[in-house]
Amino acid sequence: MTKENRMKWIYRLALLLLLFLCLFLLMKLNPLYHPFLKALQGVFLPFFLAALITYLLHPLVEYVHEKGVPRFVAILTIYLLFFGGLGYTIVKGFPYFVVQLKQLLENVPALAKDYKELLSRVDKGTSALPYSVHSKIEQYIVKMEISAQNILTNAIFSLRKIVDYFFVIIVVPFLVFYFLNDFEKIKKAVWYITPRRFRHEGKHLIEDVDKSLGGYIRGQLFVGAILGAAAMIALWIVGMPYPILLGIVIAVTDIIPYFGPILGAIPVILIALTISWKMVWITVGIMLVLQFIEGNILGPFIVGRNVHIHPVFIIFSLLLGSELAGVPGMILAVPVFSVIKVIVIHIREHRLRQHPIDKSE
């Protein structure tokens, strides 16, 4: 290795150490800037949601516009269909959602009693096992009780936060309309405020991110909505309580690759356990059928599930996202990792163009 190459590696290691040091300092200074970040979160949340919805709807607007429909009419049509359908679903479904949530909260003591009896039977059934094994099972039982309580507490807290942000979220439809209507102007503004030497590279970067991520996100959301609706109907038909709540959980967790179906099935099976073993097998059968439909029909044709990331890295990103932000972190893990991957590839290609590798060395 030449002296120049050694200096390059020393420089890279020093830069990496400096990055870790900056991250460490940011973690330590979190109490100082956390209130400021909370305030910014409240301000930027509607803009982020509006930008996401605009990103999802814009291809539909362009498709309708290419069919000969005037652009403003295309925007108004897609806008009214999306928010009209969403509003109708909320107006019709929200009362049932509230009723089922109220029933769940009222039945929490009864559910806790059923689980204690079930866990007690498991505890007695394992009493003949060696003490170390029996002790481990008791520890897992206690952890399961604590986890169930934490999940319910977090769910209620999340609902309260949604109510707190209600008036902020009302702004989103207005922002979406302006974003869709002025989409080309926004693109031009971003183009002109970008330094001239980064414009073409930035354009290619955004195109590659959209190619890698756009279809995946739209497809995942569409498939999640279909599976959630199908789960609601199937659970309602077989007589499971809280079908709307459970369907929403299944729809949201289905966005998570690999672990999503398991996370979505856990609350369904836990509630089925308080009814009967017959209901457990019925719900397991429903979940398996839904996952078969998703994995063999909806996934390949609608999503493609192809973000060109090795499964090992997907699992790593999901575990990291779970540690950092729980279920929301797992939902965002693959899209964020995909964007980082595209950025790294662009930086590498840009450096290679500027500093070609001499193969004769």
Describe the 3D structure.
The structure is a single chain. 86% of the residues lie in helices and 0% in strands. It is mainly alpha-helical. The longest helix has 55 residues, at 71-125. It folds into 2 domains: 40-193, no CATH class; 201-354. The protein has helices at 3-28, 30-66, 71-125, 131-164, 166-169, 172-181, 183-193, 199-237, 243-253, 260-273, 277-303, 311-354. It is globular, with a radius of gyration of 25 Å. Helix 8 (199-237) runs antiparallel to helix 9. It starts with a helix and ends in a 7-residue tail after the last helix.
Total domain count = 2
| Number of helical regions | 12
Beta strands, count: 0
Shape, per Cα inertia axes: globular
Largest sheet: none
- Rg: 25 Å
The helix/strand series, from N terminus to C terminus, equals HHHHHHHHHHHH
Residues in helix, % = over 70%
Topology, element by element:
Layout: H1 3-28, H2 30-66, H3 71-125, H4 131-164, H5 166-169, H6 172-181, H7 183-193, H8 199-237, H9 243-253, H10 260-273, H11 277-303, H12 311-354
